Amino acid sequence: QVQLVESGGGSVQAGGSLRLSCVASGRFFSIIGMGWYRQAPGKERELVAVKSDGSTTYARSVKGRFTISRDNAKNTVYLQMNSLKPEDTAVYYCNAVQSSGRAQWGQGTQVTVSS
Q: What's the pLDDT score for residue 91?
């Protein structure tokens, strides 16, 4: 079992930056991929950035503005978000996929970008 706890959300003006953190506890060694998803009101949850098996994938809407990184020593994955836009407003969720194929989700952290 893996538990995920996100932090770092908040409110910021357009053009600002935030860094989200997600700390994993439990069977961290079993995690083969970690990433960030987001869900805006009235919309489906969507992929933001994923880091898995040495490869990194970004949503087209955030490429060049967001950076995902992983610190295995701290069991933590980060999402550095720069040049934020109002359309980035959403609840951001951390996701971890274990070698068994099981996926775990964090509780989510709110990001609000005002124009």
A: 98
